[in-house]
């Protein structure tokens, strides 16, 4: 009996993988342009990290983690997101002591969440994320958002909507929390059990509930914007001013609540407005998490970041009909006829490859016509033909597949000839 791939995961095969490489390259290139450096953290971490970092009352920690005990009976978890691990690493490696603050990091790594799979929602997915740690300047919030928008735009996406909110500082949140509890408590029995549990712990998350989103109390719920203290208001205004300065459009949505506990001040999501994108329209999400480094044992370090999954980015490109130009063609295919020529083609191919020329040959003992067919399928720019006659003369016949021109080239000069034509 054959074994199938686990639910919510997928193979990325040749043909598709080139698109991934292109996106990854773009993400790396834009990160470098904004002066973010790559960080790689382990695929699994101590479970405590996510319980404390992401928050005990979140869906991620409550329902979605791949948690297991290793043979030493330690509880480990496949990372469901990147911010807590990067923060752990920042503290553990004392990056707060580095001269170059803020520390600006990016990652492209697989994440794991036990969610109900559907289009755009998988159990293993790849996040491109960035974290800027050690600055409370509102301009860096705008920089982080601009980085995400730059990646999307340069890949060709147009139908994007940036949704912005502020969650305020601790004082503003406390006052908002009290107002939310007072608002929902009298009729909390009309809400789902998740919301009932959230009421006292984290009432903000009630606003994020999918089941109860049409309840009349949702629309009339007190807005964070009414509970912001002066400092939080100013901070939010300054973020908006920086976005305006970069000509980045946004809409304010005071109900935007992110699903992770560590956020304060700026919260944002970038949505796809492309028709046919599907039910899940969020392409990326992020925000400020000023308390997390401290919660994980480091000094007070204001930080902000975001993450986007490459899967949703690919879906958005497809929905907008953007095709990525991937490079698939071969520079040269060597066609050899006869035993001696076949033998010689081994060293010719090796020479081509050592000279940086993308090349291949037949390994199935095919006839000439079939070898040409293979060259065609591989989109070879040149086909180099070697038969007995060519061997005796020390030359190889090179056909330019675009123009159809054919020319004799001294075998030793094949690499130079092809490089000139490239
Ligand atoms: P998040 O909103 O949980 O935030 O996830 C960020 C992005 O990851 C989503 O917008 C989506 O693109 C992608 N994503 C999440 N779950 C799935 C899934 N099951 N399948 C496919 N894609 C998914 C975070 O993870 C935060 N760590 C972001 C952040 C970084 N905040 C500050 N720094």
From TrEMBL:
Keywords: Aminoacyl-tRNA synthetase, ATP-binding, Cytoplasm, Ligase, Nucleotide-binding, Protein biosynthesis. The keyword Nucleus does not apply. Its EC number is 6.1.1.21. Homodimer. It is found in: Cytoplasm. The keyword Nuclease does not apply. It comes from the Bacteria. It catalyses: tRNA(His) + L-histidine + ATP = L-histidyl-tRNA(His) + AMP + diphosphate + H(+). CDD domains: HisRS-like_core, HisRS_anticodon. This is Histidine--tRNA ligase. Pfam families: HGTP_anticodon, tRNA-synt_His. It is an enzyme of class 6 (ligase). GO terms for molecular function: histidine-tRNA ligase activity. Gene3D superfamilies: Anticodon-binding domain, Bira Bifunctional Protein, Domain 2. NCBIfam families: hisS. Its main location: cytoplasm. PANTHER family: HISTIDINE--TRNA LIGASE, MITOCHONDRIAL-RELATED, HISTIDYL-TRNA SYNTHETASE. Transmembrane segments: none annotated. Belongs to the class-II aminoacyl-tRNA synthetase family. Residues 1-320 form the Aminoacyl-transfer RNA synthetases class-II family profile domain. PROSITE patterns: AA_TRNA_LIGASE_II (PS50862).
């Amino acid at each position: 009996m054959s074994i199938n791939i686990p639910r919510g995961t997928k193979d990325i095969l040749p043909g598709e993988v080139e698109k991934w490489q292109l996106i990854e390259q773009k993400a790396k290139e834009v990160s470098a342009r904004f002066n973010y450096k790559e960080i790689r953290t382990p695929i699994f971490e101590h479970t405590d990290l996510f319980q404390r970092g992401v928050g005990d009352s979140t869906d991620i920690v409550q329902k979605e983690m791949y948690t297991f005990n290793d043979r030493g009976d330690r509880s480990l978890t496949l990372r469901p997101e990147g911010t807590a691990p990067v923060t752990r690493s920042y503290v553990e490696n004392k990056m707060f002591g580095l001269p170059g603050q803020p520390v600006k990091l990016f990652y492209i790594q697989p994440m794991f969440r036990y969610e109900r799979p559907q289009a755009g929602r998988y159990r293993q997915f790849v996040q491109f994320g960035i974290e800027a740690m050690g600055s409370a300047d509102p301009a860096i919030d705008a920089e982080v958002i601009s980085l995400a928008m730059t990646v999307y735009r340069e890949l060709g996406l147009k139908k994007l909507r940036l949704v912005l909110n502020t969650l305020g500082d601790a004082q503003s949140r406390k006052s908002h929390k009290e107002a939310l509890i007072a608002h929902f408590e009298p009729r909390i029995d009309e809400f789902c059990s998740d919301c009932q549990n959230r009421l006292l712990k984290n009432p903000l998350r009630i606003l994020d509930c999918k089941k109860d989103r049409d309840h009349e109390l949702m629309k009339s719920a007190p807005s964070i914007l009414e509970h912001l203290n002066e400092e939080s208001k100013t901070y939010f205004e300054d973020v908006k001013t920086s976005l305006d300065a970069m000509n980045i459009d946004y809409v304010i949505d005071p109900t935007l609540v992110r699903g992770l506990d560590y956020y304060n001040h700026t919260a944002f999501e970038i949505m796809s407005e492309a028709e046919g994108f599907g039910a899940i329209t969020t392409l990326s999400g992020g925000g400020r998490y000023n308390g997390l480094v401290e919660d994980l044992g480091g000094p007070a370090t204001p930080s902000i970041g975001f993450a986007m999954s490459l899967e949703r980015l690919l879906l958005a490109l497809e929905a907008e009909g953007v095709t990525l130009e991937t490079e698939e063609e071969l520079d040269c295919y060597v066609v050899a006829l006869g035993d001696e020529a076949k033998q010689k083609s081994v060293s010719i191919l090796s020479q081509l490859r050592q000279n940086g020329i993308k090349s291949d040959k037949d390994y199935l003992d095919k006839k000439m016509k079939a070898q040409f067919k293979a060259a065609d399928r591989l989109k070879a720019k040149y086909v180099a033909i070697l038969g007995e006659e060519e061997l005796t003369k020390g030359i190889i016949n090179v056909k330019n597949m675009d123009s159809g021109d054919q020319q004799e080239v001294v075998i030793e000069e094949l690499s130079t000839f092809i490089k000139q034509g490239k």
